[in-house]
Amino acid sequence: MLQLPKDLVSMEAPPTTPRLAERYRSMLDFTAEFAPLEYPEVEVAAVARRAGVSLSTAYRYFPSAAHLLLALHRRQLVELRERFTERTRNARTTELRSRELTGAAIELLQMRLSQPAVNSCLDELVVPADHELARLIGEVDELSWSVLGRLGGGAARGKSIVLMVSGLVAAIRTGRLLPYEAEQQLKDACALLEREISASRFA
C-alpha cells in the first residue's frame, strides 16, 4: 500500500491563462515518460526539470507524484472516451458495438499495464475520504466507468469491466497470468456482456 505524505499542500485547479495552461500540459506530457516506472521512482521535481517548469509552478498544481499521475490518467481517459465516442457513432450492428467495447477494454488494460506508476495510484494508494485526491480518484473512476458503460449498456456494466481490468492487471503483475491470457479473458467477458445486452433488447 502507498501512503501519502501528511503535510501535502492543496493543489490548485488547472490554470486557464494560456501561459500557465501550456506549462500544465507540458507537465502532463512529460509525466507520461515517467508513468512506466514504479510509483516510488516518480518525483514531481524530476518531471518539472524535464518539462522546463519551475518547481513553484509544478508544486502549485501537483503537490505529489500521485496528483501528477492521476491527472495524466484523467487526460488519457478523456482522450479514450473521445476516440471511442467518434468510432461508435457508425457502429450500427451488435458485432461492431461488441468490437468497440472489447477494443476500449483492452486499451484500458494495456494502458494500466504499461504505466505501473499510474496503476499503483489507482489500486494501492491509501487516501482519506476527505482528501482532495479522493475526489481526483473519483473523477478517474467515473471516467473509466462511463467510457466502458457507454459501449457496454450502462455504468454498472462499465464498472464491472473496469474492476475486471484491475484484477487482471494484478494477476499479471504477480505472475499468475500472462498478458495474452488476460486479454483473452477480457475479450470473452466483453463478448458475454454484449450477448446479454442483445438478448435483453429482444426479450
Number of strands: 2
Secondary-structure element order, N to C: EHHHHHHEHHH
Estimate the strand proportion.
Answer: under 5%
Fraction of residues in helix: over 70%
- Overall mean pLDDT score? 88
Q: Please outline the major beta sheet.
A: 2 strands, parallel
Radius of gyration over C-alpha positions, nearest whole angstrom: 18 Å
Regions with little confidence, pLDDT below 50 for 5+ residues: none
User: Kindly, what is the distance between the CA atoms of the first and last residues, rounded to a whole number of angstroms?
Assistant: 45 Å
Task: State the shape.
Answer: globular
The helix count comes to 9
Identify the quaternary structure here: single chain
Structural class: mainly alpha
Widest beta sheet: strand line-up? 1-2
